[in-house]
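Sample A.
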Amino acid sequence: MERETCLITGVGPGTGTALVKCFAQRYRVAMIARDGDRLNALAAEVPQARAYPCNVAKSETLLETLATIQQDMGAPSVVVHNAVGGGMGDLLSIEPKVLERNFQINTMALLHLIQTYAPAMVEAGKGAILATGNTSAYRGKANFAPMAPTKAAQRILLESAARSLGPAGIHVSYVAIDAVIDVPWTREWYKDKPDDFFCQPDDIAAECFHLAHQAKSAWTFESVIRPFGENW
């Protein structure tokens, strides 16, 4: 039987790569990220994955890429929006264009993904749309002004999608990662922290895979994950 297609945005060296390797065990995976060289290297490592370099902050380019993926690989039955626009800064001094860019990445790109691929999922009567987020989607802490409003908008947009698409058989879910993810730059930043301080990308990917395949009788919309020692 021919494999179905999974689309993953934000394929970086941490969570994105882990998501690709996890979902590639069952799906053909369309990978989106800005770094074409990294995508091509990962595609060479994971035969079921295909590279589509794209900056999701640019709506016109993103829509062209999504159309190409659908033509090449068919309409995805699973979409994971892992791309993130972030940054920190004081509310009174941040550049408005940073907030605007983050809104394009976190919220508008998600809208384009939903509008492009949800109709085919509805027609098929099945599918899953997920987004990865963090606790800034729930609270606007000081110095998170460039990111928190856009992540909150992302979560609310996804909740609206869940209420709209759920009755049609489409599982929509938000995965909030309340943790420092284990990647090289965070290891350098938190060099004095023990291993179990970090959330492992493979474990995040496993949670996303689990959510994408939940039984209809017990769907989860919000999954908040954190290491066992996280202070919350």
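Sample B, a different protein:
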Amino acid sequence: MTQHTEIRVDIELDEVTLDGRLAVPDDASGIVVFAHGSGSSRHSPRNNYVAEVIRSRGLGTLLFDLLTEAEDLTRATRFDIPLLTDRLIGAVDWLRAREAGRETTGEQNIGLFGSSTGAAAALRAAARLDDIGAVVARGGRVDMASEVFTEVDSPTLLIVGGDDTQVLDLNREAHDRLACRSELHVVEGAGHLFSGAGELEEVADAATDWFATELR
């Protein structure tokens, strides 16, 4: 198994400092930055499980809080997709600056993994940045990024539960409208949280295969 050390990091942006956890193997070909959903955080058990599987394939991961504790208390802030997008882009810029100064890693391919509302932020960020290697959305509220579908160039994988019918419809529409190369992966019988036996494992395997292929 690939060896890595996970460290706590402070992501210092212009207006706020965000808490994060970074793990990057010395020989990593890329790093996946996670954008959690509404009401979640860097401690999300589902995202942490996916991150663990991704790291087992030799890629790095950055899980961080999109909001401060105070900001996360209000629904309006939780669903402020432009703000979440700015925070995600800020974290990517911070990560690139940090990794560029490390002789053991240097320039890294960056992927984005977004869950629920975080998926909208990931797509919006990919539309604004020209160097995102891949995007994966899990149960994504991709409709909140519909106006940028034609501006996303990064290969995008949409993972949705088969029983998460409303979100599945939204992702089918996104799959049809995205200008980039995209695939829709339906986890049969799964709901929005992928809580059934083997469902989250399927999510992690599909996401990891996507990133391992695209972030080379």
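Observation for Sample B: The longest helix spans residues 81-100.
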